[in-house]
What does this fold into?
Amino acid sequence: MIAATDLTKTYTFHKQQAGLGGAIKSLVRRTYETRLAVDSITFSINRGEVVGLLGPNGAGKTTTLKMLSGLLYVTSGELEVLGFTPSGRKHDYLRRIALVMGQKTMLWWDVPAMESLLLHKEMYGLSTQEFDRNVAELAELLDVQDLLNVQVRKVSLGERMKLELMAALVHGPEILFLDEPTIGLDVVAKARVRTFLAEVNQRRGTTILVTSHDMDDIEALCSRVMIIDHGRLQYDGGLDELVHTARPRKLVQATYATNVDSSHLDGVEGVTAVDSSGQRIKLEVDRERAGEVLEQLTRIGPLVDLDVADADIEEIMRDLFLRRSMPGDAS
Ligand SMILES: Nc1ncnc2c1ncn2[C@@H]1O[C@H](COP(=O)(O)OP(=O)(O)OP(=O)(O)O)[C@@H](O)[C@H]1O
It folds into this structure.
């Protein structure tokens, strides 16, 4: 469905010094700079997949989404989406995709969202029947029936994001490109957006490529992630595999009814770190040894709570990006 080979984007822009002097100078003599934003990345995405595009600020995620949706020309490499070259911006192509940017709006601010939806109906040539069916289904899923006739400027950020998603999906696109869809939303609104996206993927088979700095979004939606950093694709694979490879350990926390002595765990095979105080023991244990160690923990004292978790994906990301940004570190 999406195939990118050695996809590269270089921006050329002119530098201007601040102030009037700088503006005049730049009129007379312009100095240009180039920035390699996406550096020869190759990937493919199949129909129905939900893929997370992760990376630190400035990694090239938005640039990639803009190339995929045809907003930017590719500097070099090959890009084919649904059999089209996206930058051609053919109507038949735009009819089959949608791009939602969390920080930008595609709704008219001064009129109710329904006006924007009706414009989309005309732009995409939807029949009244198809339009009504889609509006009814999406409004119900997003619980926005009461908001469709309210001026967009009067709705909250979370409500606006729901309406943005509705506007993006009303023409029934096969691919949805999402750039930070939950940015600035509260926890309840975030959860609602995630549930909605998962439902759209399941019900309609919509392929989704999503960027987010919120790892809860990624964990809730994506089984596959692509990590991009300094424009290079650093990882493309399962989220679980990433967690297992980057941190092949389980984090265990045991709470006891009385103070306990953690020295029983000294030298136990598979235990890599122990931190204990009073009634609590926290430890890291090799995945394969977790069963035996848990059994041991039950024998140390009267257990009241036991929590076993994978390493936090947020921590893994932080480690990955910090390591790569260290000067002189070629890894
Ligand atoms: N129009 C532009 N002109 C020049 N450079 C740009 C332009 N847009 C983006 N860049 C640069 O390209 C690089 C990649 O930017 P991009 O917006 O794709 O990153 P991102 O991964 O989406 O970051 P963020 O997480 O902060 O949104 C950055 O160094 C950015 O400064």
Summary: The pocket of adenosine-5'-triphosphate is lined by residues 11, 13, 35, 37, 55, 57-63 (CB under 6 Å).
